[in-house]
Design a protein that fits this description.
The complex is a heterodimer of chains A (462) and B (295). Chain A is α/β, with parallel strands linked by helices and 462 residues long. Chain A has 18 helices and 16 strands. Helix content of chain A is 34%, strand content 16%. Chain A is globular. The mean pLDDT of chain A is 94. Chain B contains nine helices and 17 strands. The chains are: A alpha/beta (462), B alpha/beta (295). The interface between A and B is large, with 38 and 39 residues.
């Protein structure tokens, strides 16, 4: 072990420069760097990385192909299990999944599996993807609600099995959270998201945008009137949470969803788009997840002095480690153990500050994390022009309310088993709509399992 | 793409367009709205649905040119297409789904202000078809800006016009006319519905309250997605934060915090003005800017 080479560092945009633009932070490996990094894999007999991956990509196998310089083969290996490798290589929380279970990580640094996956996916997009094998059409129609990660993964698998798949998307662009949520500097929209969705379309999957299921059509009407044999609901968790503290409706208080949607989907940061966006001179972002990091780093790039306040400590930050690291490098201030109690407004109803209270960690709560408790009398004010609430999201109740016989739990999530089977025959669900806000890769895993369940359901009907 | 089947100018700054959108037309109900994107780089603009025809597969929108985005809508012509039209969004009006029995005692008075008159029309038409007595007040700055005069007449019992300058009908505000109808003419109504500029809806609600008349208003808040995702549309109703896009757009007028709603509506006003200046500079377009409801 001692003789092994260290993890090959990945080239990134200089923090000072990237803090002023929306171009991708990480440049990724080139061929030589990837081949060198790939030699670090030990090819364990029982590769723990594979079982730690929600879609079980054959990691050592694709890494072996990279090491040998057979990038096209590496791409084919990944394509067996993942329809969005260029996305996952960029946004997966590898430190808690594949890389987190890498044996090398015990004594030194794990293999850079994410960066290798990204390299292979980017290489393959640039050098022409091989067409994936597809079964002949079986004549069955399947509808998918939502074109985010779970819907795309489900659609890919079903299309390969020969199904006639239509995805219904409420917004005007396909991609779900990949399009409206994750910023350009972390996940380029044209080069990566649109390109990967293009691959899904190549399999014959149709995507109908501007269709709000629950309003424009319903799950019931898709099944009863439009001749779909099954429906997969992958509508995500789109409803923003607020804190319900005084001042939350002042001008200058936004949900992270609004702020990010204006910038990502609606391209407010670009001058050739009409979308307005407001940051003011100073921004406070409340929350500690990836969405909070994305909102803060977006605000920074729009020119605002940005602070993140989070009620626990840095150890509890739910964001990917890399995002926290990048945010700090770019100059975002982190105020931990701090919780807002009131947003303060000026005489015209605009934000002028935020009153917070200091917290300390108490006993562990049901999630096992030590829960923060306020320190009495420790209130203080932070001057700011706007506040962005990044407190998590919950599923949109629209679909559950308009679908007969579909059970939801008290958090508004659709009740489904591990295979996406819901209380309503023929209706399957997965991703954030079932679990509440989670990750791209978990949603993709759920979409794939549901695809298998839909296949056996439809075969069983024959 | 969603083709514009027909376009007509209702006044120099207000246009009506019929758009081919079959899925939307099939499910639209009175009280709901839609979102249009005029062209690829444009904003998502919420507009209340002014009519729908399930057989033709069309929906009708009425837009007043008041900014860059509404200007873009109005500059499109018959045969052109919107890149996107999504909906119907929001809840249908409360009376949708009620039967004749439930509506037997109902007597409605609708108040349409400026371009807000257009979304009043499908509601009046709907109630009229059920035989419910409906009166309508249309208010505008001046006679030239009164829209839907003839169409409304055809579907309501009594149509009353009022203008700020007295050029047609009652000389004064819709609130004054409402008071006159109820107090002096002894008209009996069980429900008022007001759609128009926020300031009009605020005072219509105050007047209705003083007359003991329940009133519904349709809020034209800021929105991005229109499906509950962004929360830009949040309004305080009865002391609680509500999302106008999914829980509205119609709310009890007594309960709405109009002052907050008006303040929030103006959140991007400076930027909109800047966009307008830039846009005019680029396009060299001579445009009329009339304050009022972004419909």
């Amino acid at each position: 072990m001692a003789n092994r080479i260290p993890r090959v560092p990945v080239r990134e945009q200089d923090p000072k420069v990237r803090a002023t633009n929306f171009e991708e932070v990480c440049y990724g490996y080139d061929g030589n760097e990837a081949m060198l990094e790939a030699t670090r894999c030990l090819h364990c007999k029982n590769p723990r990385c594979v079982s730690a991956c929600p879609v079980n990509v054959s990691i050592p196998e694709f890494i072996a192909a990279v090491a040998a310089g057979n990038f096209a083969d590496a791409a084919s290996v990944i394509a067996r299990d993942s329809s969005l490798p260029a996305v996952c290589g960029r946004v997966c929380p590898q430190e808690t999944q594949c890389e987190g279970s890498c044996v090398l990580g015990v004594k030194s640094e794990p293999v850079a599996i994410g960066k290798l996956e990204r390299f292979v996916a980017d290489w393959s997009m640039k050098n022409g993807k091989k067409d994936v094998e597809k079964a002949p059409s079986n004549g069955h129609k399947v509808a998918i609600v939502g074109s985010g990660p779970s819907g795309l993964a489900c659609a890919t698998d079903l299309a390969r099995l020969g199904y006639d798949v239509t995805i219904f998307e409420a917004l005007h662009k396909a991609g779900g959270v990949l399009e409206y949520g994750i910023p350009e500097f972390r996940l380029p929209k044209e080069r990566v998201v649109a390109a990967e969705i293009g691959e899904v379309r190549k399999l014959g999957v149709k995507i109908e945008t501007d269709v709000v299921v629950g309003r424009t059509v319903t799950v019931d009407s898709l099944l009863d009137k439009e001749g779909f044999s099954a429906v997969f609901i992958g509508s995500g968790a789109g409803l923003p949470r607020f804190m319900n503290i005084p001042g939350e409706n002042l001008n200058g208080v936004f949900s992270a969803n609004e702020f990010l949607t204006r910038n990502n989907l609606m391209k407010a940061y670009r001058h050739d788009y009409l979308t307005p966006v407001y940051t003011g001179r100073k921004v406070v972002v409340v929350g500690g997840g990836n969405v909070a990091m994305d909102a803060a780093r977006t605000a920074l790039r729009l020119g605002a002095e940005t602070t993140i306040v989070y009620r626990r400590t840095e150890n509890e930050l739910p964001a990917r480690r890399e995002e926290v690291h990048h945010a700090k490098e770019e100059g975002i201030e982190f105020r931990m153990l701090t919780n807002p109690v009131e947003i303060l407004g000026d005489e015209k109803g605009w934000v002028r500050g935020i009153r917070c209270i200091r917290m300390e960690l108490g006993e562990p709560d049901e999630s096992g994390r030590r829960s923060p408790v306020p320190v009495p009398g420790s209130e203080f004010e932070i001057e700011t022009d706007s506040v962005i609430m990044a407190l998590g999201t919950s599923p949109n109740p629209l679909i559950a309310r308009t679908t007969s016989g579909l059970e939801t739990n008290r958090r508004g999530c659709i009740v489904a088993d591990d295979n996406g089977v819901t209380s309503r025959p023929g209706v399957f669900a997965g991703g954030d709509a079932v679990t509440g806000a989670a990750t791209v890769i978990l949603a993709m895993g759920a979409g794939r399992k549901a695809a298998a369940a839909i296949d056996s359901y439809i075969r069983g009907q024959e | 793409m969603f083709e514009i089947v027909s376009k007509e100018m209702l006044s120099p700054a207000i246009c009506r367009m019929k758009i081919h959108a079959p899925r939307l037309a099939a499910s639209a109900q009175p009280g709901q709205f839609l979102i249009v994107i005029p062209e690829d780089h444009g904003e998502r603009i919420p507009l209340t649905i002014s009519d729908y025809d399930r057989e033709e597969g069309t929906v009708t929108i009425v837009t007043q040119r008041i900014g860059v985005s509404t200007g873009e809508i109005c500059s499109l012509n018959e045969g052109d297409s919107f890149s996107d039209v999504a909906g119907p969004l929001g809840q249908p009006s409360e009376f949708v789904g009620m039967d004749r029995k439930e509506l037997a005692e109902a007597r409605y008075i609708f108040i349409g202000g400026g371009v807000g008159t257009a979304p009043v029309y499908p509601q009046v038409k709907y109630l009229h078809s059920l035989g419910v007595p409906v009166d309508v007040i249309i208010g505008a700055k001046t006679s030239e800006l009164i829209i839907y005069r003839e169409q409304m007449k055809a579907v309501c019992d009594n149509l009353y016009i009022c203008t700020d300058d007295g050029s047609e009908g009652f000389h004064g505000m819709v609130t004054g006319l409402l008071e006159t109808l109820v107090i002096e003419d002894g008209k009996k109504y069980t429900q008022a519905v007001a759609i128009g500029p926020m300031i009009m809806m605020k005072f219509a609600s105050l007047t209705a309250k003083s007359l003991g008349l329940p009133i519904i208003v349709s809020l034209n808040t800021l929105m991005v997605d229109g499906t509950g995702m962004c929360g830009a549309c949040r309004v305080t109703v009865g002391g609680k934060t509500r999302f106008a896009c999914v829980e509205g757009p119609e709310f009890d007028g007594y309960e709405v915090d109009f002052d907050e709603a008006m303040r929030r509506q103006g959140m991007y006003r400076t930027q909109e003005h800047e966009a307008e200046v830039e846009y005019e500079h680029e396009c060299r377009l001579g445009k009329t800017v009339i304050n009022g409801r972004t419909e």
